[in-house]
Amino acid sequence: MDKNSSTNCLNEQRKRELDTLLENISFKPDANGLEIGSGNCYQSNFLKKKFSFLISTEYDKNAIDKKNLKDILFLLCDAQNLCFKKNKFNVIYSSNVFEHIPNKHEALKEMTRVLKDDGVMIHIMPSRTWKILNFFGHYLNLLRSVIIMLILKKEKPPEKTINKKENVEEKKKIMRFFIPPIHGTYKTHFEEYICFGKNRWIVFFEKNNMKIEKIIKMPLYSGYMFGFERLRRSGEFLGFSSSYAYFVSKTIKKSSK
């Protein structure tokens, strides 16, 4: 899959996610929002219409697509060290971001700090189903790539002399080609699979003194576009989901008199 196809696939998945989310919620007209990890800012253009104002943030400047930044209030920002005053936002939103943050507890602590006492966070988190689909989808995509190469009958490029360093890099590329990369900040695929469990995310929030208000099941998809639309819809009908939206609020401790 080329870069444009991959981007279009991701945008389509994120749009379906957001549509599902917005069908189930509504915000006050004067609500302000903070988007964490906006990526290419594709979702930002839909989110901004739901708030009186929205600030979109991203840590990786290379992920940003400048054509999506029109009329977007955007900041380069680390979720582990937010540059906002406390109790500022009514809503904090992220989509498939937490699994990429090295210190998740510190990031959630920072988000809690800038969230208003009566505010809500909405975090879309990947599920174990997504992990399975993404892992085995890598090999399906690999098979597809091999078949395309055979059909096109690409000529073998002329051999060239490479030094030791280039040879090591070439071997690393081959390894990445045959072994799926780990998606987030976890050490192994098995650890990532375990941590993507629904109950694991719930425990993560509760350990950080957050209250789960509700959980919404998101659409089914993988990280690859295979066109199995009928199969995908059947999977959703059977209850499978690639992610869940967790609505969480502060657990306010009442001071004793």
Structure in words:
The protein is of the alpha/beta class. The chain has one domain (3-130, 183-250): Rossmann fold (3-Layer(aba) Sandwich). Helix content is 40%, strand content 19%. Strands 3-2-1-4-5-7-6 form a 7-stranded mixed β-sheet, with helices on both faces. Strand 1 (32-36), helix 2 (44-47) and strand 2 (53-58) form a beta-alpha-beta unit. The longest helix has 25 residues, at 128-152.
Give unreliable regions as ranges. none
Q: Per DSSP, what share of the residues sits in E-state strands of 2 or more residues?
A: 15-25%
Strand-pairing-aware structural class: alpha/beta
Shape: globular
Please provide a brief summary of the model.
This protein has 257 residues and is an alpha/beta fold.
Please outline the helices and strands:
Elements: H1 3-24, E1 32-36, H2 44-47, E2 53-58, E3 73-76, E4 89-95, H3 104-114, E5 115-126, H4 128-152, H5 164-178, H6 189-195, H7 198-207, E6 210-217, H8 229-237, E7 243-250
Parallel strand pairs: 1-2, 1-4, 2-3, 4-5
Antiparallel strand pairs: 5-7, 6-7
Helix pairs in contact: 4-6
